[in-house]
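lol ok so funny story. i was supposed to be doing the assay writeup but got distracted and ended up predicting the structure for this chain instead. priorities right. anyway since i did it might as well share w the group, maybe its usefull for someone
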Amino acid sequence: MSARYIIGIDLGTTHCALSYARLPEDGADPRLAPSPEVMAVPQLVAQGALEPRPLLPSFMYIPHESEGFQALPWDAERRFAVGEHARARGVDAPARLISSAKSWLCHPGIDRRGPTLPIGAPEDIEKISPVEASWRYLEHLTEAWDQELAKDDPELALAKQELVITVPASFDAAARELTVEAASAAGFEDLTLLEEPQAAVYAWIDAAGEAWRKHLEPGDVLLVVDVGGGTTDFSAIAAVPREGSLELVRVAVGDHILLGGDNMDLALAHVVKAKLAAEGKELDRWQMASLTHAARVAKERLLGDPSMTEAPIVIAGRGSKLLGASIRTELTRDEITRTLVDGFFPEVPSSARPATRARAGLTQLGLPYAQDPAITRHLAAFLGRQAGATSKLEGFVPRGAEGAEAGRAPLLLHPTAVLFNGGVMKSAALRERLIATLGAWLEEDGAPRPRVLPTEDLDLAVARGAAAYGLARRGRGLRIRGGTARAYYVGIEGAVPAVPGLEPPITALCLAPFGMEEGTEATLPPQEFGVVVGEPVRFRFFSSSVRRDDQAGAELEAWKPGELEELSPIEVTLPTEGRREGDMVPVQLRASVTEVGTLLLEAIPREAQKPNERWRVELSVRAET
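and the output, tada:
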């Protein structure tokens, strides 16, 4: 039987959520399908206490054997917990808590399939990989759905429905493929990946209904500001008139910025630590980890309840003098406002750029967080880099362009509307600071201040939007055109005589132009290239978010600094298939973007040794054969 539901899953850094929509019957008008609903996910909220909650915190707790089973209705002997109870236990036992698995999933500096988490865990804990942690969250959602809705009808099992999982727009191909791998481990087969900022827009369109056309008009540029628990994402979507209707086109995507609620929790923990130090109370490393989790809980309470002026913080005492005691303090609203608004959203000029510093030769193993915590600086860099993002759109005339100085190129991309997303942006103070700063930049550049689009639940918008996207693919609602957020290239080494001290020249061959749609193939030039078989070789790949005119097959012999970014190389040993090791085999190249958004490069030999012989290399594989 075919799927009966579209399932949208927000696999977030700090929370997961599941939204679902009933698919219309065959022949029914898809426009009449109901809007997506959010499932309340049953989960442990305390030892032995099960409650349904709309959000499943993305935390996994590995208890000591003395704590017993973490029983669930579908698994009475479960040895771990995910969700609300796991997050709460992290305050008292941070060494047994896995958090930010999604951020680790996109960290190229570790073996993301190897046992890594929790970092610094005691020896009695069996570590798991970021992929398995992500799988466990998806597994819990699957089991909860099946327990609630598929008990009497196996055809309603989650694995048999159409699934849309969201990822950051800036996720590279490796992180996307690992997300698919985690979903496959949870039993999913019919799977699509959707960028989170686009999901937020789909949720907004679905909630607004036909009224969305009153908020967006031809010439508008919508800036999506998505600040979640672990990442900050910027995307720009243009409203383009096309044959009498309005079309939304994703025109720019920012870099992957590991900056969000996790950084803010740590900053607040240091504020509280300074207060405790002033009282003569020093904290060790594990107490600091507990304090960071406690600060997160206090922050969420204060941001979620405007009537609260302070939230209590309690962490366990350590040492003989404090055995059995606890350390108590509080986090105030004023401290949150001062730390988060001024620290992470400072008022800076449009010319500001993120600060960088030289890294130490030796560091502790950890996530590659952004060096500059100022989100406004990262936004200025994004808008400056994408100043000409709409210049090539056919039929697009920017709104407010008449206010700019004649003949002067804009210094920034000019958004006319802003859509906020992510739990961090629930704070009115943070939204107001960002809009005020952005408005000042645009006025200096001769453009009007942007308006803010109305939104409802920033925690659940991405999950709702994922399901709404699934319906839009079937004809209910507007589709956003986008494709790849960057152009992708492979390095071709020149065949030249060896010269002391000089590397062979590299030509960058465009495999996928900017905006290439998923499920499509690029037409590459017919010339032959050579691949070496039977011994380790390295494929060099590049990407660009600024070269928008390069077509598939374009060859770049030189490029300006900053135009191309080299990705992590892929090291493989191609099978010989009866040839000798080290043979150079003439091949033609074929490139395509898969349905899950990864770039697939195929090398097809001129003289095949077996039917349909070809070598396949995906950007999802990093330093692995």
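Residues 600 and 618 are 5 Å apart (CA to CA). Confidence is low (pLDDT under 50) at residues 620-625.
back to the writeup now i swear
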